[in-house]
Amino acid sequence: MQATGKVGLFGAAGAAGQIIAAALSAAGRDYRVVGRSRQPLEAAFGHDPHAEIVTWNPDDPASISAAAAGLQSVIYLVGVAYDQFAEHPPLMERTLEGVTAAGVERFILIGTVYPYGRARGNPISENHPREPHTFKGKMRLAQEKLVLAAHGRASGSTRLSTLVLRLPDFYGPGIERSLINGIFEGAAHGKRAQVIGPVDVQHEFIYLPDIGPVVEKLTRTPEAYGRWWHLAGTGTITQREVARQAYALAGREPKLMVAGKTMLRMLGLFNPLMRELVEMNYLMTEPLVLDDSALTKLIGPFVKTSYEEGIRHAFNAARNAPESAATQGGTAKAA
């Protein structure tokens, strides 16, 4: 593996950005966090001497190039609203043009399982067809294709290398955008947890803090680029079992309010987010499980936190945090 230069985290303020930044800092590496607003970046990274804080306007090509200036690697974590997925491809196109112009050498997209569509048998390897049947899957696939097509793109004497790291649904301490975060909050505060059903189907989740060291290693593994990779969780679990373990830590019986596809459609009449969840509900009824043996072969074994340990950490974080809107009658959150 090669030593590597400065890494930029584009869209850094979210949970994944903070986790990857922590791994870079632990490795003694300087990094740049890039976001639209300075305040959340200061709150998340202002304490770390390894962090440089930069704001950008992703609609402005000059701003993108300026944000990428002097970086060797860019990790792309930029999200869009769940009902605005059509923004993903044009935003990626502008970003790739900007980072190429800035002379960035490596580009990592943190991706999802959406581009695969329905699984043809589990677990699936990287050679599974990418045949999304949903709008969101098609937009994510278009985004990925732009990233992989940019592999080898030249700017002066520099060539850009790209890869996609595909993750399943995630969870962890204080990660509000997790599909199952409401379970930990409900258990911690003795409330009914709102979840997206069905709850008795096996599902794969990755403990999000585990991704940091893997991504850090990929920034200095040049042979990884030019393709996509899987980073899997530690097997599968049902949401009911997550709830059983979480509520048991509180000495309580699980209390769940389950929204299935029919209820999501009804809620969608009044709540745009609920309406957007309907098309992706197939991932709850038809499990898709990732095989990451190829990545393990490339970079060696990596830490995978057990569900038991991860649930305990997530529960403890919820217990120590202020009660959120979700446990005070708010709606379920998207994954």
UniProtKB/TrEMBL annotation:
One of its GO terms (cellular component) is cytoplasm. GO terms for molecular function: aldehyde dehydrogenase (NAD+) activity. Pfam families: Epimerase (PF01370). InterPro entries: Epimerase_deHydtase (IPR001509), NAD(P)-bd_dom_sf (IPR036291), NAD(P)-dependent_oxidoreduct (IPR051783). Residues 10-214 form the NAD-dependent epimerase/dehydratase domain. This is NAD-dependent epimerase/dehydratase domain-containing protein. The lineage of its organism: Bacteria, Pseudomonadati, Pseudomonadota, Betaproteobacteria, Burkholderiales.
